[in-house]
Amino acid sequence: MKTTIHQKSAMVPEPLKARIEKKIDKLERFFGDDIEAIVKLSEERGGRNIAEITINLDGSVLRAEEVSNDMYLSFDKSIDKIVRQVRKHRTRLEKRLRVGAFDIMPDDEPAVREELIAEEVAGRLVRVKRFELEPMTAEEAIEQMDMLGHSFYMFRNADTGGVCVVYQRKDEDVGMLEPIDV
Fold first, then answer.
1. How many C-beta atoms lie closer than 10 Å to residue 72's C-beta?
2. What is the pLDDT of residue 128?
3. In terms of pTM, does the model score above 0.85?
4. Local confidence band at 46 (pLDDT 50, 70, 90 cut-offs)
5. Does domain 132-177 have CATH number 3.40.50.150?
6. Are 175 and 165 in contact (CB under 8 A)?
7. Could you give the 3-state DSSP secondary structure of residue 91?
8. DSSP 8-class letter at 29
9. At what angle do helices 71-100 and 138-148 cross, to 10 degrees?
10. 54 strand-pairing partners
11. Per the CATH hierarchy, to which homologous superfamily does domain 2-100 belong?
12. DSSP letters of 112-125?
């Protein structure tokens, strides 16, 4: 498993780097060698230490972020979150395989590619993120939204081919925005 460590406003000591690589390497039993884990560490004012781990799988993204006053603690909590997400993800995949194990799957599924544009734009828009939309059902999009911990998720509806958004409502239910062709 390939591990990339990004550090922002803090130097990462060698013992912490060794700990990160050791714990990330233990995730190999779930994924194998061909997966990359991105670990972002940053230190902010007031002693806030932020550890964020992102793992891109085939069409899925696992992400965990933790904040505490100790970088070791932040990393340990975030790796625990990732392990829980991996187990949850594997359980869903195994369940899906049992249901449609012999269904024909398309060979040309697009890889999830994200392109982040960090240019200054007039007004309040400060960040533009471009990515390929993978065809999936609304249920799969809701799973992805939950795994990422986001309040919304944009996807290409496998049934209609249109671009849709699922979102978390204030009453804890999930809504879906689907445009109508005019």
1. 15
2. 78
3. no
4. confident
5. no
6. no
7. helix
8. H
9. 160
10. 38, 63
11. Ribosome hibernation promotion factor-like (3.30.160.100)
12. P-EEEE----STT-
